[in-house]
Predict the structure of 2OG-Fe(II) oxygenase.
Amino acid sequence: MKSLLDGITPEHINTTPFPHVFISNAMDAATAQALGDGFPTFAQIAWSGGSRPPGNRRYQLSAWPIINHDELSATWKEFVDLHSSPAFFEQVVALFQEYWPDALKAALDGSLLGHSMGLLMRDRFENCRILQDARVEINTPIAEADGPSSSRGPHLDMPNRLFSCLYYLREEDDDAVGGDLELFRWTNGPTANIDKYALPADSVEVVATIPYRANQMVIFPQGINAVHGVSVRQPTPHTRRYVFISAEIADDWLKSPVTLS
């Protein structure tokens, strides 16, 4: 199996509004189809209750449980194993070699490479400097009574994260409106408290929108300007499906420029 970054070079990087790569048809058609057809069920991911889950709520299943899941396909196990491996991490580091923040490099003794690696949920930071994950995530259907909503407005990811990669596996019959990835820029510089779950609406503005579409991938390094969010999604019976790939360290290397009460 090829990785999402095979054949991707720094020439693919778009720097507006922050460094990122967006690729359509990221995996070969057969693999993308197999991943879509074998996407974990809601019960396999999270929900065993009899009542309807909350609308537009995120649930996840990490790589380590997927690899050890008796009911999931060999394709899924190979995919998450590859994309949570040190080899994939090395591809990410090489791709964005000119864009890693100085504060992140300083937190890793000057280099992102050469550290002990592990998997979230299997390993601990006491034994591994960097923990990776390639997890299935979903946003649940939205009932008409719930009305339109965004699963996550403009925000920065966790301050100990190194990069974020989203690989979409939208169902063929999913006709939902919204749920696209929005890329923002600060309106007056990074003056909001980045530790907040959602940034104030007037502190950022949308610059680019990446459609929620099957077999599409977007990846970007963490940084003070990497503000992103999900557009408002209209009521729908469909589940929003994707893989989230990331790596983290123990310490919060990304610091807020201001602390708000």
Remarks:
- The chain has six helices and ten strands.
- Residues 74-83 form the longest helix (10 residues).
- The chain has one domain: 12-248.
